[in-house]
Amino acid sequence: MLSLSPQRGTTGSGESQGEGGLKFCHGPKDERLGPFPIEVLAQLPAEALRAMVDFEVGIRGVGRLLWPGTTDVSEYASRMAEVVTFKPHGVDVFTNASVPRPAAGEGLNKRCHYTMCDVFAHDKYTGLLLTDSQSIDALCSQLINKAENMGARMLGYDSLSGEWTVEVSSF
């Protein structure tokens, strides 16, 4: 069970899962498919669900989870919204007691990249967006520390798009 969310004050706002649930997922890897509604996942053949390549779920403007490589999602295809819960500035994975969590390294309980959207430096008094290099460098240092405090490893931060990506080894 893991909840990934940094301390308050570094991000803007976004759409929460409570306002409509998971919005998209990717896989099987076929560029013609692109993102599709999460409801379609349960309709895929069992064979495809057992070998999803670079499986990704998320909510546009809030965040996304990417499991690199081949992932078996067959056990959770119809219950993905119970396994993954996005919220502004965070995501919970396997926090619902009714959903069994597989052993580390199996299914969705394996290495994963979490990208949080809308992460920008703001002036703590005025709330104004800060774009100078000193403020961005300070935010990057904070994000590295926050990743470590969450048990994750920072993969990157894009100050133009406001996307912060971390990697966890399992949930």
In short:
With 171 residues, the chain is an alpha+beta fold. It has helices at 46-49, 80-83, 133-149; strands at residues 2-4, 24-26, 52-59, 63-71, 84-87, 90-93, 112-116, 153-158, 163-168.
Tally of strands = 9
Termini gap? 5 Å
Spatial sequence of strands, sheet with the most strands: 2-3-4-7-9-8
Uncertain segments are: 6-20, 28-33
The residue fraction in helices comes out at 10-25%
Rg is 16 Å
- H and E order: EEHEEHEEEHEE
Helix tally equals 3
Write up this protein:
The strands form two sheets. The chain has a six-stranded antiparallel beta sheet with strand order 2-3-4-7-9-8, covered by helices on one side. A three-stranded antiparallel beta sheet has the order 1-6-5. The model is unreliable at 6-20 and 28-33 (pLDDT under 50). The chain has helices spanning 46-49, 80-83, 133-149, and strands at residues 2-4, 24-26, 52-59, 63-71, 84-87, 90-93, 112-116, 153-158, 163-168. The protein starts with a strand and ends with a strand. It has 171 residues and is α+β, with helices and mostly antiparallel strands.
